[in-house]
From TrEMBL, chain A:
Protein name per its UniProtKB record: Amino acid ABC transporter permease
Stored Gene3D superfamilies: MetI-like (1.10.3720.10)
Organism listed in the record: Cryobacterium sinapicolor
Lineage of the organism: Bacteria, Bacillati, Actinomycetota, Actinomycetes, Micrococcales
Positions with biased composition (Low complexity): 9-20
Record InterPro entries: AA_ABC_transptr_permease_3TM, ArtM/GltK/GlnP/TcyL/YhdX-like, MetI-like, MetI-like_sf
Region (Disordered): 1-23, 297-355
Family per similarity comment: Belongs to the binding-protein-dependent transport system permease family.
Subcellular location: Cell membrane
Record key words, sorted: Amino-acid transport, Cell membrane, Membrane, Transmembrane, Transmembrane helix, Transport
Chain segments annotated as coiled-coil in the UniProt record: none
């Protein structure tokens, strides 16, 4: 096997006989870092003091926090906030991919249109945009679908068709799409041009090249900032009161505290839920990143496979496949294109006589 | 080598595999190819040699329409590349038609360009599965056979990052062969490899040449050219300086430019 010489020893393999027992491990007294320890103790003490003080401070009103954190109005609002986040992010990511591709097309009109979109939606505050969406039914009283300048086929009252929840999602999604477009564009540009060429040379269409080769590789670049955006979006939902939609987590907890005249515990309740969701999102992001780092991390492909035998025949687990694949040597009919013994003679036959 | 020649000579039926007629290519005002005319017969192995920037790679990329010609005509197996001819007029091909032409032309790149997020096996299976839409079991068996042919059966589940450069290039050759091309283009396939690993890739290419594949190889490996090639073309400054029998050119170059180049690389 020509490739045998590159095989690394398996994890459990016995160490090489020479040199493993000869050298002694370094025995040196470790460098001490006294100030490092002092600083750490001071920080821990300071933090402990803050916690003890906060636990007893009446203004935090912890009993009220405990009473409201699982209040039905709050849990329902938390669910609404989560829905706002998920729906608007899903729309934003899809629209972002479209806008990113538009910016990378050779068509100047399409390119400028995408640029214009970004200019508007990134250049104005999301709060202002949300207020605008709240007023959409005043600007456009009805939505008509049909051929321009003709009797419309369908016509909706804007007010009836779009409730504040929908408008909040539209507002958040369209704003976010502008940011997602830039993230996706950076991801697409990060993929080596050779990948595109290799796929094209194999006869893959533009769409296949994008979806099978370029996008999966760009995910590694796209996911970390997108995780950022999702977490940012979760918190931006607290602005939907501008639409005005008032059943999200923040607005709801403010409404409750307006009745109880006790705002601080309600802020803590809202924060607990925001933190809970962001923690879950961070875990999700970690697993997504692992998924798209396939083939790029330093992880070994097959720890279980006994690579030392170098046998051609055997069962190999195929990553991504469900059942193991039986690897057979080439059937007799096919001549190996890799002739194992290299012709010693004419490989580079005396370059001297060529000169 | 002589029997390969006669074999190739005997099987010349129909149009030549590649026919380039006064092919020119400019990038802006920079003329990279100047009226190149070449013919590659069925089963022939042609080596393109020459200094960097002489247009070898660009010419190769013109053959599968990765670059668009500025002037001239180029056809593969009698079919015009990138254009349709009707009523004496040329019509630019839709991307779909160009993709169909590329299916039959395998290409191997200097920097391998394997898909890093797929295993060796998935790399080889991708195009037959997605482009040709063949059934998975058949594609997988064929891919495993191909990996065995390039000596990498036991590496099928490895990602490119865990393969050496030579192994990656062999996977890349298997990937190109999976589409059952009638023509293989090699763009400096060993230039990015450690000297130790060049041999294993050249071995695979020699085996492929012996199996009767039509190949155009841009290379700096003169030993390979001498041993395997049926014809050799020396290019410089976008023109063909000298072409013909590899032994003849390598041992007795006629043109002064060829002599100067060969004295440096041999």
């Amino acid at each position: 096997m020509s490739s045998n010489d590159t095989i690394r020893p398996a994890a459990g393999a016995s160490p090489t006989p020479a040199g493993s027992n000869d050298s002694e491990p370094v025995k040196a007294i470790r460098l001490r870092h006294p100030w490092r320890n002092v600083f750490a103790v001071v920080l821990i003490l300071g933090f402990a003091l803050f916690i003890i003080d906060a636990a007893g401070r009446p203004a935090y009103d912890w009993p009220a926090v405990a009473q409201y954190v699982f209040d039905r109005r709050i849990t329902q609002a938390a669910l609404n906030t989560l829905q706002l986040t998920v729906y608007s992010m899903v729309i934003a990511i899809m629209l972002g991919v479209v806008l990113a591709v538009m910016r990378l097309t050779p068509n100047p009109v399409v390119k400028s249109l995408a640029w214009f979109y970004l200019w508007i939606f990134r250049g104005t505050p999301v709060y202002v945009q949300l207020v605008f969406w709240g007023l959409i039914s005043i600007i456009y009283q009805s939505i008509d679908i049909g051929i321009p300048f003709m009797e419309p086929l369908y016509s909706f009252e804007t007010n009836a068709a779009l409730n504040t929840f929908t408008l909040a999602i539209i507002g958040l999604a369209l704003n976010e799409a502008a940011y997602m477009a830039e993230i996706v564009r950076a991801g697409l540009l990060s993929v080596d041009k050779g990948q595109d060429e290799a796929a094209t040379a194999l006869g893959m269409s533009w769409f296949q090249t994008m979806s099978r080769v370029v996008l999966p590789q760009s995910m590694r670049v796209i996911i970390p900032p997108t995780g950022n955006e999702v977490i940012s979006m979760l918190k931006t939902t607290s602005l939907v009161t501008a639409v005005p939609y008032s059943f999200d987590l923040y607005t709801r907890s403010r409404d409750i505290s307006a009745e109880t005249f006790n705002p601080i515990p309600m802020l803590i309740v809202a924060s607990i839920w925001y933190l809970f969701f962001t923690s879950i999102l961070m875990v999700g992001q970690h697993f997504l990143e692992k998924r798209f780092a396939r083939g790029l991390g330093d992880r070994q492909p097959d720890r279980t496979e006994s690579t030392q035998t170098g046998a051609i025949t055997g069962t190999l687990p195929v990553i991504g496949g469900n059942q193991p694949t039986v690897v057979r040597p080439a059937p007799g009919g096919l001549p190996p294109i890799n002739p194992p013994p290299r012709d010693p003679g004419p490989v580079n036959p005396g370059s001297g006589d060529v000169k | 080598m002589t029997d390969v020649n006669t074999q190739a000579g005997a099987s010349v039926a129909g149009p030549p595999m590649v026919l380039a007629e006064q092919v020119s290519k400019s990038f802006g005002s920079n003329e990279v190819l100047k009226s190149i005319s070449l013919e590659v017969r069925r089963g022939e192995v042609m080596c393109l040699v020459g200094p960097s920037g002489s247009g070898k790679s660009t010419f190769l990329r013109c053959i599968n329409h990765l670059e668009v010609l500025s002037a001239g005509r180029l056809s593969v197996d009698g079919e015009l590349i990138g254009y349709r001819e009707a009523n004496g007029k040329l019509y630019e091909m839709a991307p779909k038609e160009a993709a169909r032409q590329r299916r039959d032309i395998g290409m191997v790149f200097q920097r391998f360009n394997l898909f890093p997020h797929m295993t060796a096996l998935q790399n080889v299976m991708e195009a037959p599965l997605r482009v040709k839409g063949l059934p998975k079991a058949q594609v997988e068996q064929n891919a495993l056979d191909l990996l065995a042919r390039v000596g990498l059966a036991e590496r099928s589940s490895y990602y490119p990052a865990h393969l050496s450069g030579g192994q990656q290039q062999r996977v890349a050759i298997a990937r190109a062969l999976a589409m059952e091309p009638k023509l293989m283009l090699f763009d400096e396939p060993t230039s990015a490899l450690d000297p130790e690993l060049v041999g294993e890739v050249l071995d695979v290419m020699k085996g492929l040449a012996k199996s009767g594949m039509t190949m155009i190889v841009v290379t700096h490996e003169m030993g390979f050219a001498k041993e395997v090639a049926d014809s050799l073309v020396f290019m410089d400054g976008g023109v063909v300086v000298e072409s013909g029998d590899p032994d003849e050119i390598l041992t007795n170059p006629q043109h002064r430019r060829t002599q100067a180049f060969l004295s440096k690389v041999l």
